Input
Amino acid sequence: MAWYEEWFNDDKHQLVYGHRDDADAERLVDLIVSKLDIPPNGRVLDVGCGRGRHARMFARRGYEVTGLDLADKALDVARQRAASEGLGITFLHGDMREPVADGVFDLVVNLFTAFGYFRERTEHIRALRAMVTAAKVGAYVVQDFMNAVHVRSSFVPTDDKTVDGVHIRQERRVLEGRIEKTITLTQNDDIHVVTESVALLDQAAFTSFYDEVGLDLLHTFGDYDGDPFTPTSPRLVLMSRRQPRPGA
Output
């Protein structure tokens, strides 16, 4: 089993990443909506939706939202949170490499580095092709990824914190074009260790991917405020459009 299949379904994942801020999700969704001509009440697919932060933001704005994720437990949380807000979001369990529809969505999003997990370029292409397939011709695909250049130059090798009585140690390294993080969670005599591994995909890699899967890149930003992308930007936000089918 791949690390992400097990780890994203682990209750301990929330201890490490529960600090994620809804305000950041609001800023990113605001940026997307302001820059792209998405129809009112349009259909949005959130690929790698996790616990549904961004899906809920889109639904609050009146869009018809579908979330896709591989982690059952994360989807359970997403459904509960959406229901508590009275949001009618559809959450699907599935692998991002498998298309969920053909030419249905006005916007497909893949946010907060929910990408780069695979070892082979062909698998990244497969995942992107599934996103493109789900979008209508002329519709939009948005990815939000870490800035690989910035990560290489500024990552913190080790840090420690304690959450709900659990000591969390994170050790980071760059290895063979990937950022790897070993997380050790310790509570009394219970020790749990997991290693995350994500490809350090830069802007050139995404441009190459997009050329192959039929996406025209429209906008590139370096943060959720819409600032230009630079080598020191914290994020790489890519907004693209699905090209017409050949001969269309």
Summary: The longest helix spans residues 22-35. Helices lie at 3-7, 13-17, 22-35, 53-60, 72-84, 121-134, 148-154, 203-213. The chain has two domains: 3-147+201-242, 151-197.
